[in-house]
Amino acid sequence: MNISIIGGGAWGTTLAQVLADNHNSVLIRDVNNNFVEKINNEHVHPSFAVSIPSSIKATLDLKEAVDFSDYLILCVPTKVIRKVISEITNLSTSSKVFINVSKGIEPETGYLVSDIINEVVPKDKLEGYVVLSGPSHAEELIFRKFTTLVSASLDLNLATKVQEIFANRYLRVYTSKDVRGVETGGAIKNAIAVVSGIASGLGLGENARAALICRGMREIVKIILALGGTKETAYGLSGLGDLIVTASSLNSRNFTAGLKIGQGQTVDEALNSSTQTVEGVRTIIAAYQIGHKYNIDLPIINASYLLVTGKNDLKTSVNLLLNRELKEE
Ligand SMILES: NC(=O)c1ccc[n+]([C@@H]2O[C@H](COP(=O)([O-])OP(=O)(O)OC[C@H]3O[C@@H](n4cnc5c(N)ncnc54)[C@H](O)[C@@H]3O)[C@@H](O)[C@H]2O)c1
């Protein structure tokens, strides 16, 4: 079948290869002309020096991508996702299935991508919504290394359809109905990955990093429950699974950005040193707002919020966590 991917960076083009391997026709839309030319003329992945199937095509033209398929994969940084969804809606003449693979929460509203879709896309242009998320580095999936994802939709038939579209011998896809849990886990783990990177950059050691990841998982669970997801999802692939793969890996841009902050770079320096998307810092701000709104105690998120917004320096933020009142686990 025809499938359009909106956003052909590291993850979008890697998923394009999965879909091409599964005999689909894929059209990627990106705003970066170099990326489009690399895919069309050199058949090379724009983020990694790896050949990709020549059947994958790319375009700068959003209308062409919207008309190409009724299945649209959203793979842009979440800071532009509202704008992209509304552009798609204005251009589309038929009802679309949106498959979101971006991982973030809108800080201004606390909205998940599904909330933005429900707000922006009129019912007659929305065929369905699926979030596809899980422990997955593009750097590994591009080499067809074994990976798992969860396809979640309120419509289980649609989740199953997306499972069938993506699954193959190296990609195992599970289904779920817990859209909010899957989206929230995939987003918040990036915030904890930044914190874990900061701890590593500070040289706090592996004991401290394990403690931060584990206590960070508690905060992920609290946020998932507050936003309407389940504990099972929190401890599944798209929560704990994704936290494990992200929170101590140099393949993770979020962990790496944290590492640089811990080593003394400012937040802006750490974010600007990569042209690729780092969702975690924005997600710390979103998670802080959610904690405030739902009155949930999130000590790691709160300390990192004060740091990334420049209200505290590194030392004060660390002391804030170390000097907390002793309590039961
Ligand atoms: N890299 C991974 O391993 C991975 C895995 C799972 C999920 N994700 C998520 O996928 C999302 C994208 O991550 P990435 O790693 O591909 O980032 P990236 O920075 O490599 O790619 C983002 C792409 O979006 C493009 N873009 C920006 N604005 C656009 C627009 N208006 N229309 C179309 N394209 C636009 C950019 O040109 C770029 O090619 C993030 O939310 C990330 O958390 C990434």
Descriptive notes:
- The protein is an alpha/beta fold and 329 residues long.
- The protein folds into 2 domains: 2-179, Rossmann fold; 180-322, Orthogonal Bundle (N-(1-d-carboxylethyl)-l-norvaline Dehydrogenase, domain 2).
- Helices cover 52% and strands 13% of the residues.
- The mean pLDDT is 96.
- Nicotinamide-adenine-dinucleotide is lined by residues 6-12, 29-32, 35, 47, 75-78, 80, 84, 101-104, 136-138, 276-277, 279.
Biggest sheet layout: 8 strands, mixed
Radius of gyration: 19 Å
Q: Give the overall pLDDT as a whole number.
A: 96
> Any idea what the shape is?
globular
CATH topology of the largest domain: Rossmann fold
Task: Identify the bound ligands.
Answer: nicotinamide-adenine-dinucleotide
CATH architecture call of the largest domain = 3-Layer(aba) Sandwich
> How do the strands line up in the largest sheet?
3-2-1-4-5-6-7-8
**How would you name the CATH homologous superfamily of the largest domain?**
NAD(P)-binding Rossmann-like Domain
What fraction strand?
Answer: 5-15%
Determine the structural class based on helices, strands and strand pairing.
alpha/beta
* H and E string: EHEHEHEHEHEHEHEHHHHHHHHH
Number of domains: 2
CATH class of the largest domain: Alpha Beta
Tally the beta strands.
8
Task: Please give a handful of descriptors for the protein shown.
Rossmann fold, alpha/beta, 8-stranded mixed sheet, N-(1-d-carboxylethyl)-l-norvaline Dehydrogenase, domain 2, binds nicotinamide-adenine-dinucleotide, single chain, 2 domains, 329 residues, globular
